[in-house]
Amino acid sequence: MQPILRQGDTEIYRIEEYRIPMLPVTEMFLDTDRLRPQIAELGPLDYDPSSDQLVMSSSSYLVRRGQTVILFDTGVGNDKPRARSIWNQLSTTWLDELSAIVDPADVDFVVSTHLHCDHVGWNTVMNEEGEWVPTFPNARYLFNELDREFITSDAATVMLERNGDFRADSITPVFDAGVADIVPLPYEICPGVELVHAPGDTPGHMIARISDPESSTPLALITGDALHHVLQVPFPWLTSSFCSLRQVAEDTRRSVLAECADTGIPMLAGHVASHDLLYIERTPDGQFRVAAPDIPIQPGETP
């Protein structure tokens, strides 16, 4: 597998767990009736008209910075009991694909941008004794206090009932194994890789700024669920029905889009199936749009 971005001693790989028509438009987003013409124009990697479902990806990002290896977001995971049928007892080649890039024992840090079911699953695998144990035995798993409080709160109960108890099989075992760290925000994992608070999808949702460690030139933004779908680029007011703090999520999304448009760096949005590197530009009237694929934007350059 080739990296989707390489700059100096930085390599970023996208590891895709699945890419499927997944959610009806009206389940994913509220107030989409007025956008039917725009939805119909979406390409086949973003929308399936036969089912009226949005095409979604579940992707992780492996960042290699020199000798340091950082994994962002670990998908749904295999063999996990889940209430949603498309996630229940998955069997994918995700771990094999990651292992072709790096030995799981050589991963130094694992970051879940937020604590939702489809971002924590490969935190653990089942051992021969039938116990969920950390997939990456030598890694430190990084969390923040806001999301730890969220996942143990009454507000999380409905989410766990809706999805299956991913807290029990994908989060608690990591803490029980003593490999979890609660970090403040912002937090620099290593030079040029910084976690930043970007709330909305959950109270403690994070994004990661990747920059050149010597020049501080921005390279990429790993955005978690600040953006779920390309439809939210021209229409950032569209907020997922799964977001905990909907207005805050919109504010965060607008901020992230502005940062990418103003710096020329790509957004790495794990649910967007149609773009490995999602470049954003401003329209003449100040709105946002996906940059045309033939625009030769390089990391760190302004379009």
From TrEMBL:
Entry superkingdom: Bacteria
Keywords of this entry: Hydrolase, Metal-binding, Zinc
One Pfam family in the UniProt entry: Lactamase_B
GO molecular function: hydrolase activity; metal ion binding
Metallo-beta-lactamase domain location: 57-271
Family per record: Belongs to the metallo-beta-lactamase superfamily.
Protein name: Metallo-beta-lactamase superfamily protein
The species this protein was found in: Glaciihabitans tibetensis
